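SUBJECT: protein chain
CONTENTS: sequence, structure tokens:
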Amino acid sequence: MKVLGIVGSPHSEGHTAKLVEAVIAGAISAGHVADIFYLSDMEIGPIQSSGGALEYPKDDMERLYPHLETMEALVLGTPIYYDHVSSRTKLFIDRLHYYSRTHGEEYRRRLPDGVKAVTVITQGAGNPERYDYVLEWMKGRLEYYWNMEVVASLRAEATGSSPVEGRADLLEKAREIGRGL
């Protein structure tokens, strides 16, 4: 299985990266092939509109298209900033419009059907359920627009006082999710 990891944090070595990397490590240990991209290392611009037609910029998103078009699983991770996904993650999701039904069936068919998805959030807030609505929002986009199946969600709360790298149980859970893909 080909697994694509996307880290939507501006910190390529932060909590979100560590959890996505752990899911990917689990997938690799189960014999899957994986690639991981850090949106902080990429220049991805917004969709523009000219006379009602959408224009997709030529930028680093083009590096992702071949991976998106051949993936069998997606691991999408984001920190929670101002009560929602990071701006980098939102921009990535917006740019997936390229593959949406509303852009045209010829584009929709480029994205494989039946992709398994794992959503990952990290948050400073201590209440574990505080941002469940963000996980639901992510799930809704992935399932409705791109026919993916969200098979697992993972969250790390209170990351300021309890860093991910010190939480062996959480990292093992992430690896277990990856092995289960």
Observations:
- The two ends are 8 Å apart (CA to CA).
- The chain has a mean pLDDT of 95.
- Residues 2-179 form a domain with the Rossmann fold fold (CATH 3.40.50.360).
